[in-house]
Amino acid sequence: MAINELSLDQQGIILLAALVLFSSFSMLAQPRLLSLVNTFALQGLLLSATTVLVALVSGHHHLYLSALLTLLLKALLIPWMLRRLVNRLGLHGEIEPLERPNLVLLGAAALVVFCYYVSLPIVQLSTMLTRNTIAISMSVVLLGMLMMIARRQVVAHVVGFMSIENGLFFAAVVSTYGMPMVVELGIAFDVLVAAVLFGVFFFHIRESIDSLDVDRLNRLSEVER
Amino acid sequence: MKFWLLALLQTLLFITGAPLLAGWVRWFKARLANRRGPSPLQPYRDLAKLMRKQTVVAEGASWVFRGAPYIVFGSTLLVAVVVPLIAVHLPTAAIADVIVLVGFFALGRFFTALAALDIGTAFGGMGSSREMTVASLAEPAMLMAVFTLAVSAGTTNLSQAIDFTLHSGLVLRPSFLFAGAALLLVAIAETGRLPVDNPATHLELTMIHEAMVLEYSGHHLALIEWAAQIKLMAYAVLLANIFLPFGIAEDLSRTALAVGALSIAAKLAGLGLLLALLETVVAKMRLFQAPRFLGFAYLLGLLGMLSHIILEAG
């Protein structure tokens, strides 16, 4: 459906979806860890706002609950935990630039095109108002994966993992108006537990290899060769 | 006939208003830095002074050096003719579309760079090499933003594109948001403002545009500076009129024209404030960071195009 045929709050969903995609791109290129965590929190906020709008447009009231859960967990609690971890690990000044930023970002744009191509048949079959955003949610998942591949910092990997979860949640909201509450709660707490566990892992990794750079994990000996 | 007369008047207003915009930005920037600053009319006085002064041409300069100021000013003048300032549907808008507009800018830039190389000083060569580096990266980003606009509006003609945004009412288009941001970044890079180039300094490590025009004097320099001011104005008018065209005159009645003139003056004053504020808070970045800055602009343009195709169409 062309955008000028939609009502204003439906256009709002489209706009917020585009901003979610943009936040994924900026996470991919963000070299500072604290700003990375802040961008992740922003993505959570945008996601929660999108969910509220979808609930408003579709009249599915349980989505308000999901939006609240997203806001509390992904925009406040997990970013707060990650921020605290970054500070306690002494990484707040750390800058980790991408190795080939332009190549990675163009690859990311290519992934978006790929997602559009893949989701085209679904979009043509669906009658939902939010069907155009399915490709965006898929690209958020793939961009999270790309982030885990392209970055070397463990904290960036965790943020990438969390943003994959953001993408899955977004896909559920826009393609089926949300998952059943039990599933949603289960996933939410899974993510929360994962965030706690990752925190423990950070300390273990740092203790054993003296750094949080995962590239150093593939060396077998202590001596630099 | 009336339309052509108005178009002529609009162009005159465009080129005489450009120094005022530059002076306004400079004045507000000085105020932000707690200085009194020269009056916003200072650029007019500078131009008048330069026009009266004797023109000195370097020994061994060829016709390229002498002709470049006229070519640069002429191509920028054509931009001022084409870009709608206070009224749409003028006959001059049919002269060139947005892609030719990018071409006009490229023509002016090409001859500035050539003239800088012509006299063979070190600064000229350095400046033109830097200018071309920035330009070759800025142009694709600008074209991407322009294509996003053209695909949405279904035309590359500026007047019709403005008409399209004016009549589609309030539509929240993510593609326009991204394209606008991309065009803003390109405008900053292309008009030589901070953080890409500093318009207020002659520091050899950082200057780009100033390095190229270092050898000019007298009325040659006046023409080049005036062209740079018109270029700044043209980008500001493009941003204001494409993305926020509200208030622009659609017919030739006196009230419509007055509203059009007032609204564009207000929008330009606002953009000038924004530019001055931006230049006060950001620091000049290293020259080698410029490709990243422009790469980001290109990415924004690309995202605009993608979000148009994925989210807004069909």
Describe it.
The complex is a heterodimer of chains A (225) and B (314). Chain A is an all-alpha fold and 225 residues long. Chain A is built from 7 helices and no strands. In chain A, helix 1 (8-29) packs antiparallel against helix 2 (33-58), helix 1 (8-29) packs parallel to helix 5 and helix 6 (154-176) runs antiparallel to helix 7 (181-209). Chain B has one domain (2-312). Helices cover 71% and strands 0% of the residues of chain B. Chain B contains 11 helices and no strands. Chain B has helices at 2-32, 42-52, 63-82, 98-118, 122-153, 158-167, 174-190, 209-212, 218-243, 254-281, 290-312. The model of chain B has no long low-confidence stretch (mean pLDDT 87). At the A-B interface, helix 1 and helix 4 of A face helix 7 and helix 11 of B.
Keywords:
heterodimer, A: 225 residues, mainly alpha, 75% helix, globular, B: 314 residues, 11 helices
TL;DR of this structure?
The complex is a heterodimer of chains A (225) and B (314). Chain A has 225 residues and is mainly α.
Q: How big a fraction of the residues of chain B is strand?
A: under 5%
Task: Give the rounded overall mean pLDDT of chain B.
Answer: 87
Quaternary structure of the protein: heterodimer
> What gross morphology of chain A would you assign?
globular
Quick one: biggest sheet of chain B? none
Stretches of chain A where pLDDT falls below 50 for ≥5 residues? none
Name the largest protein-protein interface in this structure: A-B, 27 and 25 residues
Q: What order do the helices and strands of chain B follow?
A: HHHHHHHHHHH
The domain tally of chain A reads 1
The run of helices and strands of chain A is HHHHHHH
Strand tally of chain A: 0
Number of helices of chain B: 11
The unreliable regions of chain B are: none
Radius of gyration of chain A, whole Å? 18 Å
Detail the topology: elements first, then pairings:
The complex is a heterodimer of chains A (225) and B (314).
Chain A: H1 8-29, H2 33-58, H3 62-88, H4 101-125, H5 134-150, H6 154-176, H7 181-209
Chain B: H1 2-32, H2 42-52, H3 63-82, H4 98-118, H5 122-153, H6 158-167, H7 174-190, H8 209-212, H9 218-243, H10 254-281, H11 290-312
